[in-house]
Amino acid sequence: MAEFGLAIAHGGGLIAARAQFPMAPEPWIDLSTGINPLPYPVPDLAPNAYRRLPESEEVQRLEAVAAQAYGVADPSMVVAAPGTQILISLLPHLLRLSRVAIVGSTYAEHASAWTAAGSAVSVVPGIAAIESGPGVVLCNPNNPDGRRFRDVELLALSERVGALLVDEAFADFEGPGLSLAPMLPANAIVLRSFGKTYGLAGLRLGFAIAAPAVAQTIRAMLGPWAVSGAAVEIGTAALADSAWLNATRARLNGDVARLDGLLTAAGARIVGGTHLFRLAQTPAAQAIWERLGQAGILARRFEAEPSWLRFGIPGSAWDRIEAALS
């Protein structure tokens, strides 16, 4: 569990990588994140996207398109935010739970945020042993191992606990039967990320899905104009483009299989993942990480699990990656 106030390790960090491996070739290939390497083609934006504040009707249109994309019948349940990270930080102060069980190991910012809000945090290995409690937090699919929970399992869990927060940051490419959003219980909140799936993490856009009264409280906490005009315009276009999403899913299916093959050939064992990242385990993880760094390729390592390496899905330069792994 991360201590409040201390920096939590994340993917990225190319500036530090360049300093550590100054002789590495350019351009660097960043495989340390779970961000789609081939982003949604950003349309030409109207000048007003930058010159004025978004109208409330435009934000409502974005939320309605997001509701349709996520299978939510009532658009008032969807709240647009400047990325899901701000929601992870804010929701513990809204819910004010005395104790929270976090299904781990998982994205460390959840434990940090609940600790900062004064909740007693425990990390549990799964949901089967959770019989009751004020609140449960989990990622579905989980980061970094890709563990998945079925929607019916989460519905049953919601009946045993006071509040359920489900981070579905990597759920967009999953099939039916996983997301809790279409059948959301009144005591549950779902978070959905935009930037990972659409390869536009710097745009800072995400969504909370909650019962209408809770959603309205989240809007009030975020305040007016929480989402930029550019994010509203791009997000509305992208979330309505189901053809792009389906084509991207098909491409990633092939890319995942190709990356798994390269990692297996390098002596690693695939222990989990999603369409946007793969988790590999090998006793040689540190040596492979350094060899990749010398080749200008950044993978994600884990201090708590030194035999793990997480790899984002490459968008190009497959031959260069294969050469470095072999």
What does this protein look like?
The strands form 3 sheets. The protein has a 7-stranded mixed beta sheet with strand order 2-8-7-6-5-3-4, sandwiched between helices. It has a 4-stranded antiparallel beta sheet with strand order 9-10-13-12, covered by helices on one side. The chain has 12 helices and 13 strands. The two termini are 35 Å apart. The N terminus is likely disordered. Helix content is 37%, strand content 18%. With 326 residues, the chain is α/β, with parallel strands linked by helices. It folds into 2 domains: 109 residues, Aspartate Aminotransferase, domain 1 (Alpha-Beta Complex), CATH 3.90.1150.10; 194 residues, Type I PLP-dependent aspartate aminotransferase-like (Major domain) (Aspartate Aminotransferase, domain 2, 3-Layer(aba) Sandwich), CATH 3.40.640.
Summarize the structure.
With about 325 residues, the protein is an alpha/beta fold.
Entry keywords:
326 residues; alpha/beta; Aspartate Aminotransferase, domain 1; Aspartate Aminotransferase, domain 2; 2 domains; seven-stranded mixed sheet; four-stranded antiparallel sheet; 12 helices; 13 strands; 37% helix; 18% strand; globular; disordered N terminus
Strand-helix topology:
Elements lengths: L13 H7 L8 E2 L17 H4 L4 H15 L7 E4 L2 H12 L3 E5 L5 H8 L3 E5 L8 E7 L11 H8 L2 E7 L20 E6 L1 H4 L7 E4 L2 H11 L6 H11 L2 H24 L3 E5 L3 E5 L3 H10 L2 E2 L1 E2 L6 E5 L5 H8 L1
Parallel strand pairs: 1-11, 3-4, 3-5, 5-6, 6-7
Antiparallel strand pairs: 2-8, 7-8, 9-10, 10-13, 12-13
Helix pairs in contact: 3-9, 4-5
